[in-house]
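For the sake of transparency, this paper describes our internal protein records without simplification. An entry from our holdings is shown next, in its original layout:
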Amino acid sequence: MESGQNRTGIAVIGGGIVGASVAYGLAAHGETVTLFDEGDIAFRAARGNLGNVWVQGKGAGGPAYADLTRQAAKDWDEFAHDLGAESGIDLHFRRPGAFFFCFSEAELERRSKMMADLEARATVPSRFEVMDNDGIRKLLPEVGSAVTGATFCSDDGTTNPFHLLRALISVFERRGDYRPRHAVAGIVPDGAGFRVKTQQGDWLAERVVLTAGLGNKELAPELGLSAPVRPVRGQIMVTEKLKPFLRHGISFIRQTVEGGIVFGESSEEAGLDDRTTPDVIQTTAKRAVAALPLLANAQVVRSWAALRVMSPDGMPVYAESAAHPGAFLVTVHSGVTLAPFHAGPLAAALSAGRLDPAWQPFSSDRFSVPAP
């Protein structure tokens, strides 16, 4: 690698929650890290995140994902304590347990069977129970009569995704090199490392970790990797501040520490269109009122949409390049829940220069296996 002013040990490309978690963890291992962040012009997946640290139902398509999620959620207590103490920022992490509401007997039956089947296949245990409307009402008297029942998991919690991102960046800035408004235009392997190209100049890096969300799709092939991700739009609303009443989370509704009710559950194939649409906003609002009738009189103060990052099967992608050793790919939908994993075991593996073989179920190779 030629000499130059802009040099780093590990270049992390993408400064959202996933990239910031990885960079935070790598710096904690003593690595020299530069975090390249496009800035707030990026399609921040965090904007479309309710802040759920969510366990129940995760991994229905693969028990390895269930185990990964459950262990990460268990690690959130220590993670939130340490990051909060170091950054001085309250992550608003709480673990009161959460409901997944069902609005028909058939939906509740399907949900219950899926949860039981998943529990039987996972190796990291997670507690859940099935409740009818009366059972829900004992914990949440405000539940609407339209809710037939729910699954309830005491392992589920919530955090503030924006506080999380700010805390990660705040701590990382003390340990590493944070480059906001540095969009990466390309990455060129040069034999001894990698040339990271930006409008502000090039950086020479010994290793590269792609955490650019939707941007991974274009950057990955330059490193002999594949990131078959697509945008999935979600539309969200927040109400005026209300008196605290929502003691437990709901899959698509939570009350912030400040009192606002945040809700949204849409998943739309809309390409890169991150605008709100009246039909989805109205449908979501009606569902929220059906779940909690007291919201009928709450004033919505803001609505917005965001693009989530989704792989073909919804599970994470963790891969290393065979063609260009030292290049890694991290593509994740659940950046909040998995933050302790990304800052902990994954960062440790990236520091060592090799992914754990146990993570093979998350390799991008799974998408190239021909159908039987």
Remarks:
- The domain at 230-310 is CATH 3.30.9.10 (D-Amino Acid Oxidase; Chain A, domain 2).
- The first strand starts at residue 7 and ends at 13.
- The radius of gyration is 21 Å.
- The mean pLDDT is 93.
